[in-house]
Amino acid sequence: MHDELQIEIATYEKRTPKSAAAHKRALVRIPLGVASNYRHYEPYPLFVASGKAGHIHDIDGHEYVDHNLCFGALMAGHSHPAVVKAVEEKLHQGTTFGMPHEQEWELAEEICKRYPVEMVRFGSSGTEVTMHACRIARAATGRDKILKFEGSYHGLHDTALVSVKPKAEDWGDADAPNSVPGGGGIPKNSLANVVVASFNNLPSVERRFRENPGQIAAIILEPILMNVGLCMPQPGFLEGLRKICDARGALLIFDEVKTGAKLAWGGASDYFGVKPDMICLAKSIGGGLPLGAFGASKEVMHLISDHKVFHGGTYNTNRAAMAAGLATFRHVLTRENYEHTGKLSKKLTQGYRHIVAKAGLQAYIVSAGVNGALMLYPEEIKNYRDWTKIDVDLWRQYWFAMVNRGVLAQPYWWDEQWTISVQHTDADIEKHLAVFEEIAPALASAQHARGLAFVGAAGH
Ligand SMILES: Cc1ncc(COP(=O)(O)O)c(C=O)c1O
C-alpha cells in the first residue's frame, strides 16, 4: 500500500471510531458485519445515522454529500418529501394484504407510458425481476440457455451470478469466455445454461450463438455496463444485438435496474433508440423503498396469464413500496427534474475533466444520465477485461480522501459510479468539485511515483 493511501486510511480511522466499534460488534452476529457483501470493505464501513436530501450523517457525527445514494437506488435523494407523504398516508391504511389493489394498475400504466412494454408484473428487488425475466424468456422460446456478458451484474440468482468478476486465470478466450461461478453453491447444471460473451464484441456474441444452435433463449445485458465503473456501448453494439436476437429467435432483455430511471425519462431504450423485448426495473423507481418490475409485450406476458409461467411473491405490490413508486414516477422522475439533474451532471463531469487535466492525472471521466465515474486508466475501457487494469490503490486513495473531506463521491468499490439525485444542489456539486480539486494533485503525484505500469486487482 503506498504512503498517501496509508495516510488517508489512518485519517479515516481517526475520524470514525464509532463506526469501527459498531462494525466490531456486528461481526459477532452478522457475517462480515454487513447485510450485503457489497457493503463490506477494509478497514471497516461507515455506519450511517441518517440521510436527508443529498446528504447523510455517519454515527460519528460527520456530514457527507452523498453520491453513493444506496448504490444508485436513490435518484430521489433521501426522504424525498413527495415519497414520504405518499408512504406516510399508506402506512395508516394497511401496508400489505396479499390481495390486489388499485395502485397496481396505476403504476403499471406509468411504466407502460415510459418504457416500450405493454404489461408488467412487480417484485421487490432487481434480483427478483431479472430472475423472472430469464425464466419467461426460457418459457417463451423453449430454450434453456441465457447469454450474459463477462463483468455484468444482474443480481444473485443462479443464472445471474456467473462471470461477474472472474479472475484472470479463469477467463478463457476473449471471444468465448468461460462461465465462472461467482462463488460457491451455484450448481454445475445451472452454469451449463449460462453462456458468456464479451461486451462491445459482436463477433463473440455471434460465435456463442453458432456454438449453441437453437439453445439460447435470451441475451440479458445492461445497455450501459455499470458494474465496471461505467462502460458505454460502442456505436452499433446494441443495434447488433437486436439483429442477432431477431435472426436467432432469442429475446433481448435490457436489465434497466440502474439505467431505467437514471439514464433518461424513458430509460435506455429511449436514450439509445433500441427496443428490447423485456425490461427489468428496480432501484431508483422505488424512491428508496424496495420495488422492482419486469415488463414485455402482451404476447410474452400472457405466458403468465395463460398459466404457462408462474410468478408470485408475498410482498409484491405492498402499498408502501407502491405509493413510493407512484410518487417517484409522478413527482421525482419528471421532465423538469431530468433537466435539473442534467445541468448538475454536466457541471460535475466538466468540473472533473478540468481538474483531471489541470492536475495531470492519467484518467478519464465518463458520465451518462445522473451517473458518472472517475476512471483511473488512460484509455476508454470497452469491456470487463479492460476494467481490470485500473489502478485500484490509487482509486482507494481517491475514495478515502474524498470521504475524509465530507464527500461520498460514489459507493465504495471501483466498479461503481456516482449518482446525482434530484435533491442535490449546485452547492453540493461545488463542494464535491472543490474537494476533488484539493486532492487531485496528491493523486497525480502518487500516480507518477507509482508509474503507470500498475496492474489492478480484478474483482473484490
Ligand atoms: C444492473 C443490476 N441488475 C440487478 C441488480 C440486483 O438488484 P438488487 O440488489 O435489488 O437485487 C443490480 C444491483 O446492483 C444491478 O446493478
Task: Describe the SSE topology.
Blueprint lengths: L2 H13 L1 H13 L18 E5 L2 E4 L4 E4 L2 H4 L8 H11 L11 H12 L4 E5 L2 H16 L3 E5 L38 H4 L2 E4 L4 H10 L4 E6 L15 H12 L2 E5 L3 H4 L4 H6 L5 E4 L10 E5 L1 H8 L13 H14 L2 H25 L4 E5 L2 E5 L8 H4 L4 H13 L2 E2 L9 E2 L6 H25 L10
Parallel strand pairs: 3-13, 5-6, 5-7, 7-8, 8-9
Antiparallel strand pairs: 1-2, 2-3, 4-10, 9-10, 11-12, 12-14
Helix pairs in contact: 1-16, 4-13, 5-13, 6-12, 8-9, 14-17, 16-17
Explained architecture:
With 460 residues, the protein is α/β, with parallel strands linked by helices. The chain folds into 2 domains: 3-75 and 334-450, Aspartate Aminotransferase, domain 1 (Alpha-Beta Complex), CATH 3.90.1150; 81-332, Aspartate Aminotransferase, domain 2, CATH 3.40.640.10. The chain is built from 17 helices and 14 strands. The strands form 3 sheets. The protein has a 7-stranded mixed sheet with strand order 4-10-9-8-7-5-6, sandwiched between helices. A hairpin with a 4-residue loop joins β2 and β3. α1 (3-15) runs parallel beside α16 (392-404), α4 packs antiparallel against α13 and α14 packs parallel to α17. The chain binds pyridoxal-5'-phosphate.
